UniProtKB/TrEMBL annotation:
GO terms for biological process: DNA-templated transcription. Keywords: DNA-binding, Transcription, Transcription regulation. One of its GO terms (molecular function) is sequence-specific DNA binding. PANTHER family: HTH-TYPE TRANSCRIPTIONAL ACTIVATOR TTDR-RELATED, HTH-TYPE TRANSCRIPTIONAL REGULATOR. This is Uncharacterized protein. The keyword Transcription applies. The keyword Nucleotidyltransferase does not apply. It holds the Pfam family HTH_1.
Length: 307
């Protein structure tokens, strides 16, 4: 009987909320996870989980044992890290989640550089614009942009993200120039579908006046690059991060409008699951991200021409 494997299976089932979720994270068959938890219960002589067809829940004994078991696994991981620290090199697996457009456009070369510097590092990267549960999906660190809805997450700020309002010349010639955010009510917007439908577009001018119009949106999508393509093709007005649209602005495929009005920059964070010990390799990777993206003028600054 492998006590460690049984402990790991039990803790992972609780964190994921299901045997199938634990099976995916541990990369073993669901039947094997169930068998390991059963062996642990037999060893302890106590049921740890209430199993129904709809959900799992901890028994009273399970609640007590879960906290102790998770601490044992964290202490073991800590001991392994200390040994690794003495050896000097970074090694092991980092599971990373990041927004699709940012990952494809700007994160890929940074990952390549980091792995070339640390040849014993392995990485699994999930690029997706949807919200994911870091604990359930076994993510070590995720990159998120904007307000953090989950206050339990541990976060480190990486950089500012600036948004601009853009449209193609063809669209503006057909639909008219925008002089104020209020004009957006008479235009067609292109909207990020992971935001609530009908969200307000927020603006502030240099005098502190604020306007937040609701923009009629003809097209919604969950990917910024697709929205940019629609803007280039003249289908509407788009509020886009400069890290997505900066190159299109430089090439004149779209131009910035409402330059006297802006939205406060959003922050990009590295976030970690709560209650999980951060390994030296994850800390080193996050330090590398912060260092590489500290100066973002290559995709988020002054190289964009004036309209």
């Amino acid at each position: 009987m492998d006590k460690f494997a049984n402990l790991e299976a039990f803790v992972t089932v609780v964190e994921c909320g299901s045997f199938s979720g634990a099976s995916e994270r541990l990369d073993v068959a669901k039947s094997a996870v169930s068998r390991r938890v059963g062996q642990l219960e037999d060893q302890l002589g106590s049921r740890l989980l209430n199993r129904t067809t709809r959900r799992l829940s901890l028994t009273e004994a399970g609640k007590v044992f879960f906290q102790q078991a998770r601490q044992v696994l964290m202490d073991l991981d800590d001991a392994e890290q200390q040994v690794s620290d003495q050896q000097g090199s970074l090694r092991g697996l980092i599971r990373l989640a990041a927004p699709l457009s940012f990952g494809y456009l700007h994160l890929a070369p940074v990952l390549s550089e980091f792995m070339q510097r640390h040849p014993e590092i392995e990485m699994e990267v999930s690029l997706n614009d949807r919200y994911i549960n870091l604990v359930e999906e076994g993510i070590d660190v995720a990159i998120r942009i904007g307000a953090l809805e989950d206050s339990n997450l541990i976060a480190r700020r990486i950089a500012d993200i600036h948004l601009v309002t853009i449209a193609s010349d063809a669209y503006l010639q057909q639909s008219g120039e925008l002089k104020s955010p209020s004009d957006l009510q008479h235009h067609q917007g292109l909207e990020y579908s992971n935001l609530p439908r009908g969200s307000r577009w927020n603006y502030r001018d240099a005098q502190g006046h604020e306007l937040s119009p609701i923009v009629p949106c003809r097209f919604r999508a969950n990917n910024g690059n697709l929205l940019l393509t629609m803007a280039i093709d003249g289908l509407g007005v788009l509020k886009s991060p400069l890290f997505i649209c900066g190159e299109a602005l430089r090439q004149g495929q779209v131009r910035q409008v409402l330059q006297a009005w802006e939205e406060a920059p959003k922050s990009m964070y590295a976030v970690y699951p709560p209650g999980k010990l951060q390994s030296r390799r994850v800390r080193a990777f996050t330090d590398y991200l912060i260092d590489r993206f500290r100066n973002t003028t290559g995709w988020d600054g002054g190289e964009v021409p004036d309209a």
